[in-house]
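Suppose you are handed a protein chain with no further information: no name, no annotation, nothing but its sequence. What can you learn? This example shows the usual starting point.
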Amino acid sequence: MNEDIKEERTDPAEAQEAQEPQEPAPQPEAPAEPQQKAAEAPAAPEPPAAKPKKEPFKGKAREVEGLKAKLDAAEKKAAEIKDQLLRTAAEYENFRKRSARESDRKFNDGVSFAVNQILAILDTLEMAAGAACSDENYKKGVVMTLDKAAQALQKLNITEIEALGKPFDPNLMNAVQQVPAAEGQESGTVVTVYQKGYRIGDQIIRHASVVVAE
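A reasonable first move is to predict its three-dimensional structure. Written in structure tokens, the prediction is:
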């Protein structure tokens, strides 16, 4: 009987634990599916937005075009200036030539006027030199004076018009008389010079007075 009583005396805590329902032991979790893992994995960073491509040659092309336009404008301006300079040089050259001609003409006019004043004296000396004279010293002095006068005229670029034996030229000569042509003499030939003619360059100072064969 005592043994039965011992068996009935149990620990109240153990009795309570025996009476409380025991929770099932935790089961190990099954490995997650690959898809679930992929979903739970952190998302990959999105690639950065593509930047617009730069076109370095396009800017260079515009710069080259601008420089070419400036070069064309500069060449055009240089051509205009060159043409203007050529025109100015041509005008100056024409002015210089015209001025030189006018200066020469004025000089020749002055010389012609002065020479015309002494041609009558030279004509008298020419007649004296050609006249018969018994005084040789006198005649020699006249000839020497004519030689000096010829040298002075030469320095002034004054030349005598060649007329004797030449065909008559109305631009250089005045015919004061016509005579029958001698045998073998061509018509229109100057046979005698009454008065010498002179010119300076192309300008006539005095026409030669001549006799012409018919």
